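Researcher: Next sequence.
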Amino acid sequence: MNKWIKLTVLISICVLFLAACGKEEMESSKETAAGETQEFTIEATSFEFDVKVMKVKQGDTVKITLKNKKGYHGLKLDGYKKEVRPNRSISFVATEKGEFEYKCAAYCGAGHKKMIGKLIVN
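Model: Next structure:
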């Protein structure tokens, strides 16, 4: 009988844990649904991103696509700890207000440090 009590307690704990995880996922979905989707395609050439500033509202979903036109570049977004690999896209919800710098994530030569831009979340 003691085994059955332990098993029942274990099952109850698992059910409570799974229910809590589901609630967190639902809250996250609500947050995403509240904003709009803002899409940006950034073209990278030698030492330059063609988009210098991206402006969004807090709660918006941000989709960034990076296209390499000349050279090999990546994009690293500070503050959100996001990185876009060459010729790919990422999406995330802009949960934090502020100004966040993005820069080239792949060393590309003497002008590498000039490859910067800014995400502004209002």
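Model: The radius of gyration is 21 Å. The helical segments are 2-34.
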